[in-house]
Amino acid sequence: MTGEIELLRRRARRRHLASRITVYLLAILAALGAAGPFLWAGITAFKENRDLYRRSNNPFLFNLTPTTEHVDYLFSGTEFPTFVWNTLWVGLLVTAITLGLGLPAAYSLARLDRPWSGPMAIAIFFVYLVPPTLLFLSLSRMVVAFGLQDRTWSLVLVYPTITIPVSVWLLMGFLRAIPKDIEEQAMVDGYSRLGAFVRIVVPLVFPGVVAVVVFAFTLTASEFIYALAFVSPSAEKPISTGVPTALVRGDVFFWQSLQAATVLVAVPIALVFNAFLNRFIAGFTHGAVKG
Amino acid sequence: MTDPALIPPQPHGQLTEARPEVSPPAHPRARRRFADRDALLAWVFLLPSVGYIVALVAIPFFLAIAFSFSDVTAGDPSFDWAGLRNYQDVFDDPVFWRSLRNTVVFTVVSMLLIVVLGKVLANVLIADFRGKWLVRFLVLLPWTTPVALSTIAWLWLLDSVFSPIDWVLRELGLIDANMYWLGKPDLAIGSVIVVHVWRLVPLAAVIMMAGLVAIPKDVQEAASVDGAGFWRRMFEITIPLTLPVIAVAALFGAILTFTDMAVVYVLTRGGPTNSTQVLASWAFFRGIEGGDVGQGAAIALFLFPLLLAAAIAILRAVRRMDVS
């Protein structure tokens, strides 16, 4: 009897160990598969030309001493800083517009309980699925008509159409998580509905606002086709189109500088995004499940 | 006008909560009228967003349909009715059919791979292990990085002369000469699919994580106690219970694949000889770089039926998620 239990116990332990090893193996494999290109790009960014352009050299190691000249060149010799600047201010303006329009809309849909709230929420969500590739041609004619072609302002005008639908959806989730009693109490205390929204609800939904800022900014920074279709002078380009189109001179690729740019953009965005990942998951499931 | 008797009584059925009728004297009545009427406030809050979307999504959409029946070009933006000529030209062009086929192939193959790999990845990411934060950060990189930039890293991974993949294969003695990943049609198609899958698996995994977290733990435990092993629990409990979420992840993967042109644009520009051209990139080359807005619009509109089908499917999946 005791021997049998001992056997079972040992088998359970072995199975536990095997599952642990599998989890770690898969985790390492997934991390390498996903981040491999970035790790390798990071190494490449510091390679000397003589090291890089030799077929027989191990591409994953430094065969010659690392150098920072290509990273320096990225900042001093290319328009990369301009691209970063364009992306930043476009992103900030778009985020501000998104919040200014999206937060009241989300409140209206999540809290004011009109009969059309449900269908309208779904309709707004579906706007998110309308891809830029369907609209960029007619929008580019509209941008020309507004006199905004080849200017970064065209992106400020158009990007909220991508960010507002997602943000409304996300914010609805956050708003639903706030108990209704709090607003009711505020209204009993003498605030109007509007007053309760501005004074009580907006501060409480602050985590959602931060999540929307991150999300809207990330979407704006990644957008490609509008930026490619609307803006051609490189001084007006954001990162997403500037780096792949303007850092290539004819057929000459500044590979190390390009790779440095990729890593420099990827890491900060991913860091911020990760900090809010759980919130995004919560926000999306709230919005979806209770919509 | 400020007479409270003139304020129309609010229909009671529309209010969710019966609010105590407290009218604080601090507020002028006129202001209260606006700030407290939910029905009005709901519209005032919603209209700016709706207006924005109508102006810059709905109008361009109908404009795109109109353009596809016109002879608008970048040089001559005046609108003249051209009937079905653009569609005729598009249909006569073998590159259009190639693009349509590629779009479907890329989407279907990527979607299948994204679902399978995303499911595995989601299971790994919800398990407990050391260094989870780092792994999650690394795994999400492909998704959070602007696609045009991450594709640049791939552009060089697949370089015709200096590809590290070729270097590894050469060192292993598997190949003698380089593969020319982006130079041969079949390899180029495969490369585009790999980059799409690589980029979208993290997103699918995150969506599926949300679904996995929502399964009550006791269901799993009960099955485990009853002697169901890992695979049985996977196929008889986890997958059926998370099927709507899996469907949503799959459809997001599909939509983001068939509407995207950044990967193709940066990686191959549709080459070699249009063998990786997709509808979106072909519409771009025709409509923006070629300046033929009418034809470009006609090509891009072929994305719409695919999109509509995906949207309806998502709606159904979300409805089912509601029920469970």
UniProtKB/TrEMBL annotation, chain A:
PROSITE patterns xrefs: ABC_TM1
Localization per record: Cell membrane
Primary location group: membrane
Annotated Gene Ontology cellular component terms: plasma membrane
Tree of life domain: Bacteria
UniProt KW keywords: Cell membrane, Membrane, Sugar transport, Transmembrane, Transmembrane helix, Transport
Membrane topology: Multi-pass membrane protein
InterPro entries from the UniProt entry: BP-dep_ABC_trans_perm, MetI-like, MetI-like_sf
Any single Pfam family the record assigns to this protein: BPD_transp_1
Domain (ABC transmembrane type-1) ranges: 84-277
Transmembrane segments annotated in the record for this chain: 21-43, 88-110, 122-144, 156-175, 196-219, 253-277
GO BP: any one term: transmembrane transport
Family: Belongs to the binding-protein-dependent transport system permease family.
Name of the protein in its database record: Multiple sugar transport system permease protein
TrEMBL record, chain B:
Pfam families in UniProt: BPD_transp_1 (PF00528)
Superkingdom, taxonomy of origin: Bacteria
Gene Ontology biological process: transmembrane transport
Keyword Cell inner membrane on entry: no
Annotated TM spans: 39-69, 104-126, 133-157, 187-215, 241-267, 297-318
Alphabetical keyword list: Cell membrane, Membrane, Sugar transport, Transmembrane, Transmembrane helix, Transport
Region of interest: Disordered: 1-28
Cellular component per GO, a single term: plasma membrane
Alphabetical list of PROSITE patterns matching this protein: ABC_TM1
Main location (coarse class): membrane
Compartments where located: Cell membrane
Family: Belongs to the binding-protein-dependent transport system permease family.
Name recorded for this polypeptide: Multiple sugar transport system permease protein
The species this protein was found in: Kribbella shirazensis
